[in-house]
Design brief:
Number of helices: 15
Low-confidence stretches: none
Mean pLDDT: 94
Oligomer: single chain
Structural class: alpha+beta
Distance between the termini: 29 Å
Radius of gyration: 30 Å
Bound molecules: zinc ion
Shape: globular
Largest sheet: 9 strands, mixed
Length: about 575
Amino acid sequence: MIISKMLGERIKTVPSDAQNKGHINLLRAGYIKQVANGIYSLLPPAKLAINKIENIMREEMNKIGGQEVLMPVVMPRELWEESGRYTSIGDEMARFKDRTNHDMLLGMTHEEAAVHLARNIVTSYSQLPFMIYQIQTKFRDEPRARGGLIRVREFTMKDGYSFHETQADLNAYYDKVLDSYMRIFKRIGMRNYVAVASDTGMMGGSGAHEFMLLNPIGEDTIVLCPNCDYKANMEVATCKIDIYNTEVKELKEVETGDAKTIDEVGKLLNVDSKGTCKAVCYADKKDDKKRIVVFIRGDLEVNESKLKKVVGCEIYPLNISPDDSILHAGNIGPYNLGSDKNMIVVYDKSIENEGNEVVGANKPNYHFINFNAKRDLPNATFVDVAKVPAYGKCEFCGETLTTSRGVEIGNIFKLGTKYTETMNMKVLNKEGKTFNPIMGCYGIGVGRALGCVAEESSDDKGLVWPMTITPFEVYLAPLSINKEEVKTKADEIYKQMLDNNIEVLYDDRNVSTGCKFADSELMGMPIRVCISPRTLENQSAEITMRATGEKTDVKLVDLIAFLKQTIQTELDKLNK
Ligand SMILES: [Zn+2]
């Protein structure tokens, strides 16, 4: 491609709405253009890179037996009513009426369409297992679109759906997809990524992994063990916490006056927050009469994702009214707490084996000391709803856990029969009895993948594309192109490159050396080939590698062979 004809312009100033360097560089280098909040057009170089990412995904999906299909963006309400998601999904799903006043929606995921596609075709166990996938546009009305292509509203996804007769078969296939995803991320040139166990969220199901790019711009927190293989999203991460006090003393009520917070009570009684048990209160989002009281060791925080799973509803922090007959803010405790049919009490595991804890006495101005959960709550069940603290230790090896920020770059779920049951997909087994196939689903955002590679592979000059997804392998930069001999030679080299299937961007503009070099660095092509009156004196070209800055002079007669080999070496590093 010739740069003077290529749509898109390089800009010097940093757009004000862009914060992360990948986003800034994609905008500055003329790759993307915002149309509306979270909605972008891709300019030619971005589309070329996206095509390569999609092809890598196709190759890897095909290798594990995937069959490419294309399901619609627009679906009727009825299909999503079958699964129950027409109503269970909120405003993030775009709904509209067609000309006959029929309710329609824009797909944000395609489980319903996948089951619809398969259920009338697959009738026998002998047709299982199979996996279908597509690369399709989706729309999710994100409240917080940000980061350029990282979090958008309209996006392209590679999503796949597999169908199995047995859980064991799904489990085995799921592991294959997991490996396949790791290969995809390696091949597109991501470096610092991990697969972590995750929450199944709105998809439902029995097991899930998220693939995370570990990067400071991430919105998720990933808990990692520096010693063993344990990694998990903070939403589901677990840990071991050292027991603080195991002494057993007699439960005693003490006057604590106005001291209400853990800090205040701790100071008054000279007890560390680890020696206290606090109450954290929530209400059900759909039914604010339903209250949830969590008792947890004073130094820990409640992990709301875990709590939501335990209580089975969406929650929000509860403001306790001053005339509440049971809950006395600042003095709520697990012992002698009054009961209320609308109240759910949750005891976190962190208090199970502690002794001598300070707890609220459920009346103003008083606390208990020496509370011992095992002794004083003989019927309680303890569950894990605690957030991993900075000093949390690995449950498997005992090492202190660390955390990192992460951007979700893909996810895979063991869906089970949630969709095949609700949508009545039945298949006959060997014995002629019907069963609902067990599903897995697998997604990767294509644009987000590009945004993430841009984020991870940017330096202060611009983008640094891996060879596997670069829009062009070579940036051809002839200097002093106004000189006839340079122009003629450059045209000739450009044609040779095209004839040899080298993907090249030809900077044919009559601009300064500084401008050509700055643009080539900003746009991020892996190899720059520079010719000038000086190099032509030696019948050579100067090659500069974008990633390392390494320079080599190559004779023009050897140029094509040199480029082909360099390109192949770079491709092999990622593909093999
Ligand atoms: Zn460990």
